[in-house]
């Protein structure tokens, strides 16, 4: 980011204006000088239009974020500079509108002077999150989620007044635009390296206003498979996934790089984390008790419906919503295959793989985290090793399935030329080729040609 700061200073020097770096950049640098913030926020005291013009001359792409508030974003070489016109008559007045004191510290460019009217540095030193004013959270309840993200990321705690305002204001969070709620919520999961997010959000009464059935899940769940309530189990599965990301839990066949793929702006590991916690949410609606027998039949399918609605309400992207829904829906599938001890395993595996294909590695990881969370507390029959070995076998078989699809001996055009098939027939024939290749019944192109002629005759 140094070249961005140098560019801003160069413009200030020529225009005789003033600018101040504020917010996360200053906070993160004060916490640890080696931190490399992703962007810079500045307050500009001067002719902001002239400043923007000069930035464009330096090859920055500049666009308006909030025209009515005089907020702009400039981007160069993947570095982001957010610019806001000074609010009020002074910097101190401008800083008074910010959320927390640790975000209301400014650095005056040109003379590198720290301006800290609300004792933000003192609060940083004592690891306290404190509001700039008594109205900070009341003015914008989404700041409750931001406070939690900062607390989780940096190991900080809330001042007593801030804590009270969080507890009192949580029920109003969903009154705000869901895009803002999503952005702050998913960043909590992105920054949570210790698996604390959901228990901390629940502790302050925030989670209950974001996700339904939290209180119910805390009092059900104990059965012949679980000695813990459903909420505790869900949280353990989430923690296990964090351990997988950190390399502390391992399953053979998993490539951790799959979690770096992105859906929209955020890596898929954030959505996987949410699925890990949410996987048993359907138990709240599927709980039945007959004498001493407790069951949750159908909780996977019901959970998929519930979490789809939750994702929609929280502003998740459609692709992310579908991803989470599929994982919750299928999280019991691998365990069911293992327990049923199917003889024709290739047929059963193909049914699973073809149904969920791109989601399979994530489903297997979720199943692994789920099984480990259960068996780490209660495993009287020593089943965990057997289940994990089965999951590793599924990883290996899925690799063979993908190889079969990727090395198709015939493509769609060849199928048309050889059989005269049309539309849905083509799709069916190609799927049959994939299936039989995975089964090991097709080993080369000649065998594939013989097979498809037979398939075409039977259609």
TrEMBL record:
Top-level taxon of origin: Bacteria
Domain tRNA nucleotidyltransferase/poly(A) polymerase RNA and SrmB- binding residues, every copy: 155-216
Keywords on record: ATP-binding, Magnesium, Metal-binding, Nucleotide-binding, Nucleotidyltransferase, RNA repair, RNA-binding, Transferase, tRNA processing
Protein name listed in UniProt: HD domain-containing protein
SUPFAM superfamilies hit by this protein: Nucleotidyltransferase, Poly A polymerase C-terminal region-like
PANTHER family assigned to the protein according to its UniProt record, in alphabetical order: MULTIFUNCTIONAL CCA PROTEIN
Domain HD: 273-334
Keyword Nucleotide-binding: yes
Protein family membership: Belongs to the tRNA nucleotidyltransferase/poly(A) polymerase family.
Domain Poly A polymerase head: 19-129
InterPro entries on file: HD_domain, NT_sf, PolA_pol_head_dom, PolyA_RNA-bd, tRNA_CCA-adding_enzyme
